[in-house]
Amino acid sequence: MNESGKRRLSLSWGAATDQGRVRTTNQDAMHTDSGLFAVADGMGGHQGGEVAANIAVRTLSSAKHDSLENFESAFVEANRVVHQTALNKPNLHGMGTTLTAIAVLGAADSRHFAIANVGDSRIYRFNGAEFEQLTLDHSYVAELVRREEITEADAATHPYRNMLTRAIGVHSEVQVDSWRLTPKEGDRFILCSDGLTNELSDTELMKHLLKNPLASNAAKALVRAANMHGGRDNTTVVVINVNIENIQTSESDTGAQVNEKQSNSLISDNKHNGLISKLFLRLKRTRVFDLSDVNNLEEN
Ligand code: MG
After folding, report:
1. What is the pTM of this model?
2. Residue 122 zone, left/alpha/beta (φ > 0; ψ -120 to 50; rest)
């Protein structure tokens, strides 16, 4: 009997989203099912951000995402649909969104992930010890950090910290980062909008993950913690827990199992509107800049 190489992947997940304590709308969107997990953070005044994020997530989830190539094409299609919608509707002109996602690929006994990203929403992997950001932020300050022109600490307070260098829907074409990854037993994947990471340090994120082994509890705890820290932006978190079982090849193989679906938990905590929200609304992302644009701005 051959006992080699067969793995059955089980995923459990939970998600939470909240508009935060300052914003009056939630312009984040998300998608969670057994084959696709996505977070989008829209931008572009009034309702534009909300529309862009929802179109992007809907287009991605309805397009084929059963291979890395199709997954990347689905991102390109999301870009096309958001961009075309913005061109057709003057009140939505200039809207765009981040989009970060995991698609579950492969045959039943060799499941793996495809990851794709545009913008500064993030995917992390935590295995109980190592905490790793898998995605690169496509933002002006992240570029400066990568060039070692500023530090991470400078980036957190930089006046252009909200400027993206890539987004879905802003231009007619988009460059997508995408790659394959094999999840390991005990891995936890966290997809989030910047409302989480602008409020909490990596250490704080790990603390909440360790305290909350259930994916749904972890997602809710992280969103609550972002609000406790100020909740200056919409916050969306998806947590996926990975369980891998080695199986014998002779066993009847039903493939990847989704043992426990922990449905979206919507947390409402909107007690802090008013004057301060108007101040912070001005800070919200409304434009995407190329690095050359920013350099021009600085010269003016
Ligand atoms: Mg945001």
Report:
1. 0.82
2. beta
